[in-house]
Write a structure and sequence with these properties.
The chain contains 15 helices and 13 strands. It has 402 residues and is of the alpha/beta class. The strands form two sheets. The protein has an eight-stranded mixed β-sheet with strand order 9-8-10-1-11-12-2-13, with helices on both faces. Strands 3, 4, 5, 6 and 7 form a five-stranded antiparallel β-sheet that branches. α3 runs parallel beside α15. The chain has two domains: 243 residues, Alkaline Phosphatase, subunit A, CATH 3.40.720.10; 144 residues, no CATH class. The longest helix is centred in the C-terminal third of the chain and has 22 residues.
Length: 402
């Protein structure tokens, strides 16, 4: 049996008045998703346990079969693993976004204009983070360039007790006064953020970006802290070999921690525009070349949701349908046995521009055990008429047939 899990990050949403009270998934043209749905089990799954933040870290752990209540230690350590940064047990890994803040005399009075600094390029981010490291990196703090705006800080002997940090995508267009680092030793982190602004404000990279009409990366923003994770092997848990196809370090890191093979695809950006077909082909190649399981992650609809861009979110969903599901649907007969699971990790509604903890719709297709699904469509509304599962790990257990 071959198993292909397609994770469309943040695809679920709320009904939107401008779409005749349909969600982007309902409104989008998705013939291949609907073809699968005609013969698939459909339902909702709760990927965010009670009392957990609705982050992609928690949700993807859950979907991959690892209960967050047992295995969650924070977001950034998982990203560090993907980046090849080794952490000691006493290190605190922290996500280091490059962001765009408004101008104001006092740093704390600025407004979060853009959590991604205009989806800054890898090359530009690498220059900026290296200069931050040269200026601010010491024995205590070190900075590592990642992908685009998603970078890493490591705090040696870092204290995580009562530390409260806020994701920048949760505070778009808000004054940062109430969201700066808070808790034990948080003054050290705020000092780094303020000093980074002094370094980056008139950096040559940002001068060029502003001249081109792009948002400057004029500050770092620290959040997503955590210590070393310890996940069991996916092979030990499910007795199958697998790969993860993803562009973002978080999902790669979860996969690597679980012993999955990480696949890099040329042109896969972790942004709205990415190599959809290339990622789908890479997943198929892994299955045809001996792997039993592939976790295919696509970030695009989540980024559109964070940006509040309804048109781009619909476009992202339609690209996933055409370029990913279309290619996979055309190759189903190449496999004697295959199961396909499609779902988001969490909603990222256009109206709130951040993650929510609502259950998400899924379809589970088994080529050799077709289901006559009278609903015949895949979206939030039809899924609510199907079955309900109270955890992502239960869905994974069902998918693998454990």
């Amino acid at each position: 049996m071959k198993y292909l899990l397609i994770l469309a990050d943040g695809m679920a949403d709320y009904p939107i008045l401008e779409l005749d009270n349909k969600t982007p998934l309902e409104f989008a043209n998705t013939p291949y998703m609907d073809k699968l749905a005609e013969n698939a089990l459909i339902g909702n799954v709760k990927t965010i346990p009670d009392n957990f933040p609705p982050g992609s870290d928690v949700a993807n752990l859950s979907v991959m079969g690892f209960e967050p209540s047992i295995y969650y230690t924070g977001r950034s350590p998982l990203e560090a693993i993907s980046m090849g940064v080794r952490l000691s047990d006493s290190d605190l890994a922290i996500r280091c976004n490059l962001v765009t803040l408004s101008n104001a005399d006092k740093y704390n009075n600025r407004v979060m204009l853009d959590y991604s600094a205009g989806e800054i390029t890898n090359e530009e981010a690498d220059i900026l983070i290296n200069d931050i490291q040269n200026e601010l990196g010491k024995n205590i703090f070190n900075f590592y360039a990642g992908i685009s705006y998603r970078n890493l800080a490591v705090w040696s002997e870092g204290v995580n007790n009562q530390l409260r940090l806020t994701p920048p995508h949760d505070i778009l267009d808000k004054q940062i006064t109430s969201y700066i680092p808070n808790g034990d030793n948080s003054d050290l982190l705020l000092d780094l953020m303020v000093k980074s602004n002094e370094i980056l404000e008139n950096h040559p990279v940002n001068i060029k970006r502003k001249a081109a009409g792009k948002n400057p990366a004029n500050s770092i923003w620290l959040w997503g802290e955590g210590h070393n994770p310890a996940l069991p092997s996916f092979k030990e848990k499910y007795n199958i070999n697998g790969s993860v196809v993803a562009a973002v370090d978080l999902v790669k890191g979860i996969g690597i921690s679980a012993g999955l093979k990480s696949i890099t695809v040329a042109g896969a950006t972790g942004a709205i525009e990415t190599n959809f077909a290339g990622k789908a082909q890479a997943a198929l190649d892994e299955l045809q070349n001996g792997q039993d399981f592939v976790y295919l992650h696509i970030e695009s609809p989540d980024e559109a949701g964070h940006q509040g861009n309804m048109a781009k979110k619909i476009w992202a969903i339609e690209q996933i349908d055409k370029e990913v599901l279309g290619l996979i649907y055309s190759k189903i007969d190449n496999f004697a046995e295959i199961r396909i699971l499609l779902l988001p990790d969490h909603p990222t509604p256009i109206s709130v521009r951040t993650h929510t903890a609502d259950p998400v719709p899924f379809i589970l297709y088994d080529k050799n055990n077709l289901v006559n699904n009278k609903l015949g469509l895949y979206n939030e509304k039809t899924a609510s008429e199907g079955i309900f599962l109270d955890s992502g790990s239960r869905l994974m257990d069902m998918f693998i047939g454990k």
